[in-house]
Amino acid sequence: MASKQRKASTKPRAPRVSVIGLLGVAAALVLPAVANAYYVDVVTSAGLYALLALGLNVVVGFTGVLHLGFAAFFAIGAYTYALLNIHLGWPFWLGLIPAATVAGLCGVVLGAPAIRVRGDYLAIVTLGFGEIVRIAFTNLEHWTGGPNGLLGIAHPVLWLPGRGAYDFGVDSTPYYYLVLLTMWLTTVVCLRMSRSRVGRAWAAVREDELAAACSGIDVVRLKLLAQGCGAAIAGIAGAMFAAKQGTITPDSFDFVLSVMVLAMVVLGGLGSVSGAVVGALVLGTLPELLRGFEQFRMLLLGLVMIVIMRVRPQGLMGSVQIRRELIARHGT
Amino acid sequence: MTAGQLFLQQLTNGITIGAIYALIALGYTMVYGVIHLINFAHGEVFMVGAYLALTVCWVLGVGPATGVAGLLVALVVGGVIAMVGCGALGFGIERLAYRPLRQAPRLCALITAIGMSFFLQNAVMLIYGATDRRFPSLIPSARWHVAGTTITGIQLVIWIASGVLMLGLQALVMSTKLGRAMRATAQDPKACWLLGIPVDTVIAVTFVIGSSLAAVGGLLFGIYYNTINFHDGYLTGIKAFTAAVLGGIGNIPGAMVGGLVLGILEGLGAGYLSAQWKNVFAFVILVGLLLFKPTGLLGERVAERA
Questions:
Q1: Is residue A167 part of a domain?
Q2: Beta strand B227-228 with B133-134: parallel, antiparallel or unpaired?
Q3: Structural domain that includes position A134
Q4: Which of A132, A302, A332 sits opposite B118 (nearest CB)?
Q5: Does residue A127 form part of some domain?
Q6: Strand partners, A248
Q7: Prediction ipTM score
Q8: What are the backbone angles phi and psi of residue A43, rounded to the nearest 5°?
Q9: Which domains, and CATH codes, for chain B?
């Protein structure tokens, strides 16, 4: 009897273009023209969350490392750009590079000592690191402005032909498009990575570290690579956040944020790139759009995580592969 | 205050808070010992215990005019209600959230635990409000001056209560049939199941006991600090978990020792170094432990995994 399973194709397939997808893209592009500024702002924030979720998905979803301190990299990116801008006058576009690099390096540096720590303890170590970074930013008043944070961070300025310098200012619309563009680029990069040799090696590490190591995969290097990539994405999001807000305080980068991003990845589906975006858009916009729901936000987060793990561990967009990895293993 | 007196005072304070950490740490360590799960929600159970005791005080109308007898009644009734309530909560959490995922990979159970922690935290916030709540002092104020330090009646009560509970737990675990079943399940759950030990029941009982102890911790915490907040569970929970790892996860005497050591370190640290960085000590100790000495001071006792 012929096997009904096809071998997974290793050639990159052409992306399937669906009508719904095209409509979604069209809607996204014209949103600022039809919706009022508040909603544009909400979606922009959700977009930033989506960037964070994409980054966390690389760490948790691709390699299976549960990271509870991801907000730290968001903070590092934000503070890096902010400090370079305030003290050295670096413009946003230039500041993006060190923000991503420093955050990525921190991801590797913070991940390195923890590489050999076993699963559940590793989660706590990341939590600890996240809190230490946040408290350090709060207490090192001389460098980071302490609990009051940093003020007067410059907004991005784009030189447009025929119009000269266009300062983004406080209008949500330019940030919306910036975030949208970055989201799209990041999604493409993540998808490419997941379907490459590196991505397959990551999947092997996630499924069974010992077997992966025995197959010749350098587990340590791959885990650190994932941490670095994920952290760099968070750093970029952080710089954008700082540029948009103009002010940053350490309170914005707490454990609650780390868990919120985790909940978004879980909802969308661990390991699923589109899932990270969907999860972020759902959890990022829902409480804002449904008035009176704001105080239920954490309740909702908790409930989402509990219910998803119980009912649909692979999340909304997760693959069957992920489900098989996450459901009960019998006779292990 | 002389240097020696400062040291002794901070030591006294440290032992007091350490006793509370120890009570909570016992819950973490016992649960990890039997099912290899870091019960993130345990800190929230402690916090719920404090709020339940506070509610009892409200219902009984405890106020500035309440006499000594009334205060002690509130203390006992509050303690009992908190223990029962949290025991039920712990039982419910285990039954609804953790048991179905017992065979699933650790990642799933951890995510569920975090979700449960957030759910409880926010539920309490919605019910009781986000501001600090004043917790009445249920112990008549009394002070003794010993060797230059001040020991209050509250501290004495905390020491005695936690000491009695810890000795009781040790007796339970070492001398009773249930205790033997708990130790056996912590060693090898599959073998227990084969031998006819009701593993599910033992695990449920473990959760109930751990939660009750945490509830008492919550009551004592409220009496000691006189304010409670829905966020207390998170921070104190992390510190108690640090204490559990410090003593050796799964090791019951270890949790007691770990709690006391952590409390003393924190007390001395707050006294001699900056109080601002106090919480960072706990996190730094935690991270350092997990990276360099995860087996803790007294060694861990966890089930062998095939």
A1: yes
A2: antiparallel
A3: 43-253
A4: A302
A5: yes
A6: A150
A7: 0.86
A8: -70, -35
A9: 13-292 (1.10.3470)
